[in-house]
Design a protein that fits this description.
single chain, alpha/beta, Rossmann fold, Arc Repressor Mutant, subunit A, 2 domains
Length: 197
């Protein structure tokens, strides 16, 4: 059994240099293996396990048969499509990469903790607020985070304030005070919780 690599690996079946270049750009840090025919696809999938297999379909069934024989779809992302579809897909990956600013190519090493996520989102918020010459961000951010946190805890406990206070690590009276200060509608939360059950 092959040892899994820490690098995202892609097997790309296409003879089109433009599609190859686009996928290489979209997955910069990935290991990309390019093959040009179904026989090479079969050989590569028999030797290695890939995270993604991308196939330019040309109307033939050889590629589809090779995929079924050697690829476990529960472990490998499989994409097939015409040359035009693959070009659009690569462009989509590139635009997602550019929008996130973090990149698809970093997904294996990126920290997925709550703290990391909040740091990214708070950074975007602070930058936007700074550009708008805002002041007193600390109380604004604390309120913006505290309201959905308390709302989520109340929803999880079906509006039970004692359980929500315990979950949050707050005194029940402190929670009641915050519910009033933040204008959290308890009746709506209870109704949504009852419907969800």
């Amino acid at each position: 059994m092959p040892v899994p690599s820490s690098v995202f690996s892609v097997l790309l079946l296409t003879a089109d240099a433009g599609v190859q270049a686009q996928f290489k750009q979209a997955f910069r840090d990935a290991s990309i293996t390019v093959v040009r025919d179904a026989a090479a696809l079969r050989r590569e999938t028999a030797k290695h396990q890939f995270d993604a297999v991308v196939v330019e379909s040309r109307g033939a069934t050889d590629e589809a048969l090779a995929l079924r024989e050697h690829i476990d779809p529960s472990r490998t992302l499989v994409m097939t499509g015409s040359r035009a579809v693959l070009k659009r897909t690569a462009k989509t990956f590139q635009s997602l990469d550019n929008q996130n600013g973090h990149g698809l190519h970093q997904s294996k090493t990126r920290d997925h903790s709550l703290e990391s996520y909040l740091e990214i989102k708070m950074g975007e918020f602070v930058k936007g607020m700074r550009n708008g010459a805002a002041k007193n961000l600390h109380p604004m951010l604390i309120s913006a985070v505290e309201r959905p946190l308390i709302t989520s805890a109340l929803r999880e406990t079906r509006g039970n304030q004692i359980q929500a206070a315990e979950l949050l690590g707050l005194n029940r009276n402190t929670l009641r005070k915050k519910i009033a200060e933040l204008h959290i509608p308890l009746k709506q939360l209870r109704a949504k919780s009852d419907r969800a059950v």
